[in-house]
Fold this protein.
Amino acid sequence: MTLHYDLHSHSTASDGTLSPAELVTRAARQGVDVLALTDHDVTDGLNEALAAAEPLAITLLPGVEVSVTWQGKTLHIVGLGIDHTNATLQQGLAQMRSFRDWRAGEMARRLEKHGVEGAYAGARAYARGTILSRTHFARYLIERGHANDMGQVFKRFLTQGKPGYVPGEWATLPDALHWINNAGGQAVIAHPARYKLTATRLRQLLGEFKQHGGAAIEVVSGSHSRDDYHAMANYAKEFDLLSSCGTDYHGPEQPWLELGRLPPLPKICVPVWSGWEKLPH
Ligand code: AMP
Ligand code: MN
Ligand code: MN
Ligand code: MN
């Protein structure tokens, strides 16, 4: 029997809109056998998600998505199968969250200057967990009529060079890999095709990632095209990296994405789960 894996998803602990329990329930209904909850820089949703999975025919894999700055670009590194009680990991994630807190205040100040009233409280009202993400600001900006949709609001306000964008330093790549590996996890480069790196820079990233203990790259992702699947599968093979798949689900507001609804990994891939022991269900 082939199992259905969705190894990248978000809950209200970060910028998703379903609670951890709602997310797990929905994934089970969609026929997902193994779901990883990978909230941004926080693991607060994992205990609720693990408890929700317990009576269901689904395995919840503890995960996280760590924000990284590499050569001036923001990258996301997913950790799969982490021990979320690990002190090294939690100290690292706490640093990311304190940068997030400062950044949120700074974003709000810049947006206010640009004529957006009540940005901090407005974003906070969309957050149900402890972290504030650009997504929460985006929802408030749309509510106030500053943009029509997520794509537009990011383009106008929240990306590099725009009024609400705050540059800053997230974790280094070696630090993020150390936190994940120290917690017994496997590190995976999230949606690698989204960073728009040249082939030369992507190869440099893959080399450094592998050298510092990285395990896999997302080949099939909710934000990849079919061409991206094949390009990334070839890179995985070239660098002898394992391959992962995940929707990067954030909630039913993005109806074009559904939990577990992904094509299979290309045949040349070695799945990230190939070394996993037999799962309980
Ligand atoms: P942050 O980690 O707070 O900087 O926010 C990053 C999050 O914003 C990502 O995880 C996505 O969920 C969301 N995001 C980034 N760019 C876009 C975009 N162009 N459209 C919609 N959501 C986006
Ligand atoms: Mn997100
Ligand atoms: Mn991401
Ligand atoms: Mn994500």
Q: What stands out?
A: The chain has two domains: 5-93+169-275, 102-158. The radius of gyration is 18 Å. The mean pLDDT is 97.
